[in-house]
Amino acid sequence: xxxxxxxxxxxxxxxGIVFDFGGVISQAQDAAFFPAVNxxxxxxxxxxxDGWKAHRRKLDADLLDxxxxxxxxxxxxxxxxxxxxxxALATLDYDSWSIPNPETLAWARELKAAGLRVGILTNMPSxxxxxxxxxxxxxxxxxxxxxxxxxxxxxxxNPEIYALMARRMALPPAALFFLDDTQANVDAARACGWHxxxxxxxxQAKAALEALA
Length: 213
Hints:
This protein has helices at residues 5-10, 21-25, 33-41, 45-60, 66-76, 83-96, 102-113, 129-142, 149-152, 159-169, 183-191, 202-211, and strands at residues 16-19, 117-122, 145-148, 176-180, 195-198.
């Protein structure tokens, strides 16, 4: 197995790479999601995003299910939605985050072959796990450790979730490199002593890791 020179150099600093799920292991959210929500509810993209800002951390901490999230958003807008609409919104939401990113999986396999540990640190509710497994089954099989917020009731960017992930990776924070598509989660990882970058693409992530050498 050929090992790229920069992997060998990076391993003097980094011994584990930790990936977020949504927008990293999976592709960015399906652009068809917001038009589909509008067709069901009449809500604008801004109204949905405002609702997420108010309530989505409760979903990720397993304090709400997806139906409960959209029930709460509707209530904030003075509406009551039937169960079938809430179910449809929940399915749309979960499906929209479940498109695999094959480039990320391929890179993770390269990293493992080079001798680095691989982990998954993700905010998601426990009832999303069937979607998680369908989308990322091969990645989960590859991973040395994972932390799912809904199972732990701890949500990024809480420092406790990074400490838990480091323990499961069996590595110190300074030996870990984290990729997340949300800047607040990246900033929190850095504050906990990790190396971290906001994920934009695999070439950008590779360049960021190489830069550590």
